[in-house]
Amino acid sequence: MKAIAVNAFKDAPELIESVKPEVKPGHILIKLKAAGLNPMDWRIADGMLDGKMPHIFPLILGADGAGVVEETGEGAGRFKVGDKVFGQLMHAPVGEGTYAEYIAVPESVIITKMPPKLSFEQAAAFPVAGMTAFQLIRDLGLKRGETLLIVGATGGVGTFATIFAELNGLKVLATARGEAAEDSIKKAGASATFDYSAGDLAQQVKEAYPEGVDGLIDLVSNPEAFDQMTTVLKPGGIAFTSIWSASAEKLKAKNIRGGNFEVKGSIALLEGVSEMIEAANIEIPVQKISLSEAPEAIAKSKTGKALGKTVIVI
C-alpha cells in the first residue's frame, strides 16, 4: 500500500510502498478514504513522543482518518464490515498512521461511526482539531456576547474554535494575514480581524478594544509573545495556550485565569462534537490534496502559514 512516512525522527516525509497491515484480535482494518493533516503529526515525526510511547519505522504519519471497515479481528464487536467510521486513530506503536491506504487499529481507540451527512473528507477534518477547539471553548466558560480573541485563528484548531465560539454567541476577534485568510475566518464566524504582520498585535487590539477582551485562545505564540498578548485581557479574564507558553505565576500576577491547555479526547467527546456539527448543519471548510502532495503540505504546516484545514484524499 502507499503511505507517507519518515525513516527516522526529523527526516523529511516521503511517499513509500508499505505492507498492508494484518488484523490482530480486538482490531479492525479500515480502508482509508481521507486523513486530516495536523501539526501534531509532524511534531510526532520529529520525536515529540520519543521515550513516551513505542515507535516503529518507517513511521507512517497521521492520527485523524475516515474510511470503511474492511475486516474485523477476533473479539472485535463494535463495528461490522462495511461500516463508515472516523476518529483519532493514533495508537501504540506510533508509526501505524492514517496517511496511508489502510490502517489496522484497536477498536478501543477514539473512533465512531460517521454521521450520514458528512463526507469522508469532512469527517477526517475534525477529530483532533475539532475536539481541541470544542474543549477550549467549553473550558473558557465565556457568556454570550463576550469577546474572544483567537491568535492563530486561520489554522485547523483556530477555524473550529471560531465556528464553535460563534455558535455559542461569542464575539470572535481573529488574527488573519491577507485577504484570503480574512475572508476564510470571517466565513467561519469571526466578526473582526487583526493582521499580525501590520505591527504590534497586542497594541492593535488595545486600540480597538481599550476596555479589554474577555478571553484569549493563543495557538501560536511563544512564552514571551503569549505574556504580551495577555495584556489585552480584562482583569479576571481567561487565557489558554495550546503550545504550553503560559507561566502560572505571571497569569496570577495579572489576575488572569487559564494557562496551558491539553486536549483530553474520548469517544463520547468525538460523538458530541460530531452531533453538534451535524445539528448545526456546518459545512467544514477543507483544502483537499492527494497523498503524493502531503510532504509539501507538511512542510507548509511547519512554517505556520497554512490556511484552514488540509485533508488528504486517499
UniProtKB/TrEMBL annotation:
Transmembrane ranges?
none
> Sorted alphabetically, which keywords does the UniProt record give?
NADP, Oxidoreductase
Q: Does the keyword Cell division apply?
A: no
Q: Which InterPro entries match?
A: ADH-like_C, ADH-like_N, ER, GroES-like_sf, NAD(P)-bd_dom_sf
Cite the Gene3D superfamilies for this sequence: Medium-chain alcohol dehydrogenases, catalytic domain, NAD(P)-binding Rossmann-like Domain
Start and end residues of each Enoyl reductase (ER) domain = 8-312
- Pfam families the UniProt entry points to: ADH_N (PF08240), ADH_zinc_N (PF00107)
The residues forming a coiled coil are none
Q: Name one GO molecular function term.
A: NADPH binding
Say if the entry is tagged with keyword Oxidoreductase.
yes
What the entry lists under PANTHER family is as follows: QUINONE OXIDOREDUCTASE PIG3-RELATED (PTHR48106)
What is this protein called in UniProt?
A: Enoyl reductase (ER) domain-containing protein
